[in-house]
Design goal:
Layout (H helix, E strand, L loop, with lengths): L33 E2 L20 E3 L1 E3 L6 E3 L6 E2 L26 E24 L5 E6 L5 E3 L1 E2 L5 H14 L7 E3 L5 E6 L3 E21 L5 E19 L1
Length: 240
């Protein structure tokens, strides 16, 4: 079974109170569902081992539009790198000893902000409890989707590789270039009386904001393109 890494940095979720970290961030937990503090469920009832006997409300399919994203409550924007890149070790060109020379032109990426992570939804479902008492419910993922690293501007293979390496080194080493969500992953709990609880299953996307750029041999920086970039880092349920 794949080791999933979804339970980590969710501020007001019931399972976590930690804020996103940078390079030292470590993900823990296997298949831990993320439960919104406003979800109409009995506190502490949500589990990845739902009830199977007695009267159990099974999740009904809900329309999931391609490309749909869901907020992970409690996620906040945090500062990544705060200063413009500084280049040192400049040497004089043999033909122009007084000139600044930074070596051959080099493409690079720069992260200015670690933005709110989101869930890219592969499957969504819900149950409605019309009874006057709490009832057990169970959701099972029935759809699979593959999520990949992307950006708000078109990124070439070279830029994607640079962004991937930068996110790994600066934000978290848990990101993947591609992630395919699983079918048959269960979650459940107790939904409160006269309430509807929603479940969304998908890939948690690490999101950053910054720019692509080129450092030229004269040490100038140009060709800047600002973009939001995201990369998958795990999968799981969000209960709302």
């Amino acid at each position: 079974m794949r080791t999933r890494i979804v339970a980590s940095t969710v501020g007001i979720l019931l399972i976590s109170g930690a804020a996103p970290a940078l390079a030292s961030e470590t993900d823990t937990g296997l298949d831990d569902p993320l439960t919104s503090s406003t979800a109409p469920v009995e506190p502490g009832s949500v589990t990845e081992d739902p009830a199977t006997s007695g009267e159990v409300l099974e999740g009904a399919d809900s329309t999931t539009a391609e490309g749909e994203t869901a907020e992970i409550p409690g996620e906040t924007d945090t500062t990544g790198e705060v200063d413009e890149p500084v280049y040192t070790g400049k040497t004089g060109d043999q033909d122009h000893p007084d000139s600044e020379y930074c070596g051959p032109s080099t493409n690079f990426v720069y992260i200015s902000k670690n933005t709110k992570n989101t869930l890219s939804v592969a499957d969504s479902t819900f149950v409605t409890n019309n009874k006057s008492y709490a009832m057990d419910f169970k959701f099972t993922s029935k759809k699979s989707n593959t999520f990949t690293l992307g950006g708000s501007i078109s990124l070439s293979a070279e830029w994607k590789a640079l962004w991937f390496s930068k996110i790994q080194a600066t934000i978290t080493g848990s990101v993947q270039k591609s992630w395919t969500t699983d079918i048959g992953v269960e979650v459940g709990g107790k939904v409160l009386a006269h309430s509807t609880v929603y479940g969304k299953y998908g890939a948690k996307m690490e999101r950053v904001y910054g720019y692509n750029a080129t450092r030229y041999s004269n040490c100038q920086v140009g060709n800047k393109q600002y973009t939001n970039v995201w990369a998958p880092r795990g999968e799981g349920w969000v209960i709302e």
